[in-house]
Write a structure and sequence with these properties.
Elements lengths: L1 E7 L4 H10 L6 E8 L6 H7 L3 E3 L8 H18 L6 E4 L8 H7 L3 E5 L11 H7 L4 E8 L9 E8 L6 H24 L13
Parallel strand pairs: 1-2, 1-4, 2-3, 4-5
Antiparallel strand pairs: 5-6, 6-7
Function: Catalyzes the transfer of a formyl group from 10-formyltetrahydrofolate to 5-phospho-ribosyl-glycinamide (GAR), producing 5-phospho-ribosyl-N-formylglycinamide (FGAR) and tetrahydrofolate.
Catalytic activity: N(1)-(5-phospho-beta-D-ribosyl)glycinamide + (6R)-10-formyltetrahydrofolate = N(2)-formyl-N(1)-(5-phospho-beta-D-ribosyl)glycinamide + (6S)-5,6,7,8-tetrahydrofolate + H(+)
GO molecular function, one term: phosphoribosylglycinamide formyltransferase activity
Length: 204
Amino acid sequence: MLKLAVLISGGGSNLEALLAAAADPAYPARVVCVGSDTDAPGLAHAHAAGVPTFIVRPADAETRADWGRALAEEIRRHSEAVDAEPILVVSAGLMRILPPGFVDAFSPRLINTHPALLPSFPGAHAVRDALAAGATETGVTVHVIDEGVDTGPVLRQARVQVRPGESETDLHERIKQLERPLLVDTVRAIADGTIDLTDPSTYR
């Protein structure tokens, strides 16, 4: 059974999808803790499921590196409580770039979702950037986090056609409809060994 530590900053729709999947005994992963950098409303999904949560605020740390160390320590503390080493860390809407020390501690067992077909349109405004570029197709990517900004190896992608005149809000919502099942399926593939995070030949 793969154990997951999920990191969020907002409403937690991807977390909710993982928790719903994990409620099925046949799903080969379980969420053992949920962390955030703020009082994220999505923590309520974890509370409802009885999953431990924690908040590590960057403002409470002297440096980004210190924040990363504190975040890693919370994940380790919660994973040790359920004998869950190694653990897969899922950035599911965490709106912060993780410090290099944190990445080194967990990667490649550290994944993220991004609302574009990487390597196209990295960064925080991927949907807006795709529309501004006149893209006719975009989508969502699940990738391994490395020390760059959305530069890590791609694990899985799903594509969506951009509709003429579509707004950023509407396009982003359609991408989210793909994002949730793609993340659930990617975690399943990692758990059952279809994706071996130590073997890039299994990534796509």
